[in-house]
Amino acid sequence: KAIQEDAQIQITSQNKVISTDPPYYDNIIYADLSDFFYGWLKRSVKPIFPELFQTIATPKSDELVASRYRHKSKQDARQFFLNGMKKALKQLNLTSHPNYPVTIYYAFKQSEQTGDGGMISTGWETFLTAIIDSGFVITGTWPINTEMKSRLLSIGNNALSSSIILVCRKKEGDKKITKREFLKDLNEELKQSIEQFVDLPPVDRPQALIGPGMAVYSKFSEIRDFQGEKLTVGDALTEINKMVNVIQEGRIEEYDPETRFAFEWFKSYGFGPGDFGKAEILAKTYNLGVSVLEDKKIMSLSGENTKLMSYHAYSDENYDTVWSILHNLVHWLENYGEKEASSRLRHNSRVDGNIIKELAGILYEKSFQKGLHEEARAYNSLVESWEEISKLATSEYSSDSEENVLL
Asked: In which element (H, E) is residue 308 found?
């Protein structure tokens, strides 16, 4: 049964379980797209449904999208969308069944991710602001796995590449806190969440981690910073992204010295060339030398420059650092598939596989920030395939043991 009503004033959702897919800011202008079909449908079915075809083209002024050409400026378009979305979501908040969450779908462009790996765009920030201002607490944000493959194909492009389910409940209470208190709660929550989401593909983690972060932010009625200014949704998203980076990079300190060096060098140069003298200075802080790093097949020298070896340059050797084992696995997965990659993992079983997978996730985010989309896709593929690779490595190890016993 379909009923057409204005979302800002409707009461059809009274005491209902609500799942809604609202317009995505300025991503898709539905009325403009509908004009193509409207012209043909008007010619063919107007005699059957005359009330639906009374206008020359589809109505557009009330459509709840941030269309720049329908308003005086981008800011006016944003305000129109924000005001209308707040009214519509407020109505859902008032009418929805109190015992069930409201689920809201949002789609964003992969290019809307910021340079620090986070997700702060005008559309995303405006949409979250509308949800929170309407009286909801965001308790979870979950990527939709069915879109994963298309999302990988669109890394680096401007296509709609990810869909997110936002889980929302009605806010209770009116508690105000300081930014210091917010950051303390946020740190505790994100540390737990990063552990919980370790098995998610890296491409999905920024979206998923927004949920716990915004749950901390949105449950309070007001958060004031050190100068007494109100902390906005955009400010909260910035703090969430910064803290995720700090927590994840802090875990690198537990790795071997060669991997810690390689990670620091990668943050500055990626796989591009850098000055030999700077590499030598950085290596000394980890009690290493560039020659040692070259022997361990982590770096290569060329005249006055040196650079990290790309995963393309790795071979079938056995390696003894997390960094080199990871890139060897990426090489084998890319060129030969999961079974052969599992064989390399088995030969390097003395290194904790969870650490390798964790580093792949961190390097995905750093690669995306640096515009290294091929590398980002490769790291993400390794994490996605990790369960199968680990299973194959274990089964191969068992088979080898049985053969040895028989021999």
From this structure: strand 305-308
The sign of the CA dihedral 21, 25, 31, 36 is negative
Q: How far apart are the C-alpha atoms of 104 and 24, rounded to whole Å?
A: 11
Helix axes 373-406, 353-369, angle to 10 degrees: 170
70-115 per-position pLDDT tens digit = 888 888 988 998 999 999 999 999 999 999 999 998 875 544 444 4
- DSSP state letters, 91-127: HHHHHB-TTS-EEEEEEEEGGGB-TTS-B--HHHHHH
Cα(337)–Cα(330) distance, integer angstroms? 10
Residue with tokens 């909260």: 236
C-alpha to C-alpha distances, 231 to 86, 124, 235, 271, nearest whole angstrom? 19, 16, 6, 38
Cα 201 from Cα 380, distance rounded (Å) = 6
Give the other-Cβ count within 10 Å of 28's Cβ.
12
CA–CA gap between residue 316 and residue 343 (Å, rounded): 10
| Kind of pairing between the strands at 222-224 and 176-178 | parallel
Distance separating alpha carbons of residues 329 and 356, to the nearest angstrom: 9
Q: Which of 256, 375, 395, 254 is nearest to 310 (CA)?
A: 375
170 token code pair? 């009605």
Dmax over CA atoms of the chain, in Å, equals 85
Distance CA 403, CA 362 (A): 38
Report long-range pairs for 284-287 (Cβ below 8 Å, ≥24 apart).
Answer: 285/261, 286/257, 286/258, 286/260, 286/261, 287/257
Q: Residue 384: which H helix or E strand, with range?
A: helix 373-406
Residue-wise pLDDT tens digits, 52-81:
888 888 888 888 888 888 888 888 988 998
Q: Which residues contact 378 (CB under 8 A, 6 or more apart)?
A: 311, 330, 333, 334
Q: pTM for this one?
A: 0.73
CA dist., res. 352 & res. 156, Å (int): 32
Distance CA 285, CA 108 (A): 41
